[in-house]
Backbone:
């Protein structure tokens, strides 16, 4: 008897929900009458002084903001595009994980909706900060960990390591994802060591530059 092979579930639901969330977050930036959030003013000041590190954060989110600032200036809507895109992408990657774990259309809808309406994620996606990017990177790491476990393919350690390095350049607390010791299989120690090396290499580019600290006059 020929076994029945299920066709992969289409990702239409996660894609539509991700687009809907992006539109919702961008609309919110147009209707809010308050201007920049106080943290955004600080980040914009940091972005005027690009550096390899700051006293309270790694450089990557500030370098991205500096690029946006160079192209669009201090346009509030342009500044908030990247956070909205990041949260929308987090919803989509959640769908990828759900499909990997065998979820059908209802599971995709439930999982993506749960992420989409999470209050803290709606907050992170509504203004610019490094917090807007951390959930996406964490979720992407989880996706490749699921692939690693399911496929028994050690090559998945490569994107895990690269994403971990990016995460450490985005926010110091990203290291918490690897804080637990866990059980280590002897067969994957070499690949795990490569992953950790890539993460550390990503982190070594971050230094504290006192000259890059924002001027209080910029925040007024």
Residues:
């Amino acid at each position: 008897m020929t076994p029945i092979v299920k066709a992969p579930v289409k990702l239409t639901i996660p894609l539509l929900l991700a687009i809907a969330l992006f539109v919702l977050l961008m609309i919110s930036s147009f209707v809010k009458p308050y201007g920049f959030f106080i943290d955004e003013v600080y980040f914009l000041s940091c972005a005027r002084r690009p550096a390899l590190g700051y006293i309270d954060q790694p450089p990557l989110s500030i370098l991205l903001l500096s690029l946006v600032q160079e192209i669009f200036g201090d346009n509030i809507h342009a500044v908030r595009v990247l956070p909205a895109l990041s949260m929308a992408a987090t919803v989509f990657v959640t769908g990828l994980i759900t499909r990997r774990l065998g979820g059908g259309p209802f599971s995709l809808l439930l999982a993506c909706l749960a992420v989409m309406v999470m209050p803290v994620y709606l907050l992170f996606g509504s203004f610019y900060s490094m917090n807007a990017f951390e959930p996406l990177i964490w979720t992407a790491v989880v996706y490749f960990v699921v692939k690693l476990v399911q496929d028994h393919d050690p090559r998945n350690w490569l994107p895990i390591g690269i994403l971990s390095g990016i995460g450490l350049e985005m926010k110091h607390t990203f290291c918490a994802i690897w804080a637990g010791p866990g059980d280590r299989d002897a067969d994957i120690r070499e690949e795990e060591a490569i992953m950790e090396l890539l993460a550390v290499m990503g982190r070594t580019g971050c230094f504290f530059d006192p000259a890059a600290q924002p001027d209080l006059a910029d925040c007024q």
About this structure: The longest helix spans residues 12-31. Confidence is low (pLDDT under 50) at residues 1-5. Residues 133-203 form one domain. The chain has ten helices and no strands.
